[in-house]
């Protein structure tokens, strides 16, 4: 029997670690608020502390980490991170955690980890080729090919958020440009579109809640965002030929009805049987995927 593995999730708000069993099941989980404002050393100390607590019950192999930011696939350090983790750009995550834990540490981006987790024990179980879109405050994505995350040249493959999107031309993307998919199909995008339509600024979650409660303008904003997302994902199916497309993240539930309809309508002939599915692991996806990364055979 394969021994349990430790997976770590470093996010801008919370940091978690879990002991994950051989079938991808979470056996034990720890979580703290990320000390983001105290800088990268404090964040690494917090992550190492959580992982060290669980290592006694794990096998002797590597520890896996999923983190916010773009990860250099060669070194496991952070190539680029947003202000959600100040100073995180350049942080030598793999090296620093290996020094603290006395183990090999493997690091990937958190959305990539979530995709690995879903393919191991969630909605993409037993599928070797998957496209995942993560709709939260922003819009991230990941590509799994032959059971492994496609890193790309700079660890940033799968970022679906910067495709051009109809109806987003007045909305600013997280990257600073206008007209991108993330600018409309994300929590930030819902808030911005609702503010333009009503003059009222509320959070993306509040827009989704208002839509569910019958606010007609909110419903139109949510449906528009979902439709644009679904159509974009349908186009990507022809590019990537996945076995399934998964939608994860806090805004997934609100966007999925409209996204599913647009996806079905836009899916090119020949890919009509590729399903669009809600992700299944929720907040555990990153720690489970990080654990999966730790188990991968290196060639
Ligand atoms: Zn963009």
Characteristics:
5-stranded mixed sheet, globular, single chain, 12 strands, binds zinc ion, 2 domains, alpha/beta, 299 residues, Nucleotidyltransferase, domain 5
Shape: globular
The helix count comes to 8
Q: How big a fraction of the residues is strand?
A: 15-25%
Major sheet: size, sense and barrel closure?
A: 5 strands, mixed
What does this structure look like?
With 299 residues, the chain is an alpha/beta fold. The protein has two domains: 125 residues, 2-Layer Sandwich (Nucleotidyltransferase, domain 5); 155 residues, 2-Layer Sandwich (Nucleotidyltransferase, domain 5). 36% of the residues lie in helices and 20% in strands. The protein has a five-stranded mixed β-sheet. α3 crosses α8, α5 packs across α6 and α6 crosses α7. The two termini are 22 Å apart. The model has no long low-confidence stretch (mean pLDDT 95).
SSE layout:
Layout: E1 5-10, E2 14-20, E3 26-33, H1 40-55, E4 63-67, E5 70-71, E6 78-80, H2 93-101, E7 105-109, H3 110-121, E8 130-135, E9 139-145, E10 148-149, H4 187-198, H5 204-212, H6 216-240, E11 244-248, H7 252-266, E12 276-278, H8 285-295
Parallel strand pairs: 1-4, 4-7, 8-11, 11-12
Antiparallel strand pairs: 1-2, 2-3, 5-6, 8-9, 9-10
Bound molecules: zinc ion.
């Amino acid at each position: 029997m394969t021994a349990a593995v430790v997976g770590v999730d470093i996010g801008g708000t919370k940091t978690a670690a879990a002991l994950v069993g051989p079938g991808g099941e979470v056996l034990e989980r720890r979580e703290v608020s990320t000390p983001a404002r105290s800088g990268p050393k404090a964040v690494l100390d917090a992550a190492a502390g959580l992982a060290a607590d669980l290592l006694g019950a794990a096998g002797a192999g590597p520890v896996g980490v999923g983190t916010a930011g773009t990860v250099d696939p060669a070194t496991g350090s952070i190539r680029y991170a947003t202000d959600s983790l100040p100073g995180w750009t350049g942080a030598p995550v793999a090296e620093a955690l290996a020094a603290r834990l006395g183990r090999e540490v493997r690091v990937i981006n958190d959305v990539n980890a979530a995709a690995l987790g879903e393919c191991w024990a969630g909605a993409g179980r037993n599928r070797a080729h998957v496209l995942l879109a993560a709709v939260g405050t922003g819009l991230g994505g990941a590509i799994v090919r032959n059971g492994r995350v496609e890193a790309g040249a700079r660890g940033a493959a799968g970022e679906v958020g910067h495709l051009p999107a109809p109806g987003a031309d007045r909305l600013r993307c997280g990257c600073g440009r206008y007209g991108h998919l993330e600018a409309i199909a994300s929590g930030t995008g819902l808030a911005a579109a609702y503010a333009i339509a009503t003059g009222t600024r509320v959070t993306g979650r509040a827009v989704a809640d208002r839509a569910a409660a019958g606010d007609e303008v909110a419903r139109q904003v949510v449906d528009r965002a979902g439709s644009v997302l679904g159509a974009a994902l349908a186009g990507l199916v022809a590019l990537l030929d996945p076995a399934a497309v998964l939608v994860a993240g806090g805004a997934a539930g609100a966007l999925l009805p409209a996204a599913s309809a647009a996806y079905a309508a836009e899916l090119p002939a020949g890919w009509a049987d590729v399903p669009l599915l809600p992700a299944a692991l929720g907040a555990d996806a990153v720690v489970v995927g990080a654990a999966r990364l730790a188990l991968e055979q290196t060639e």
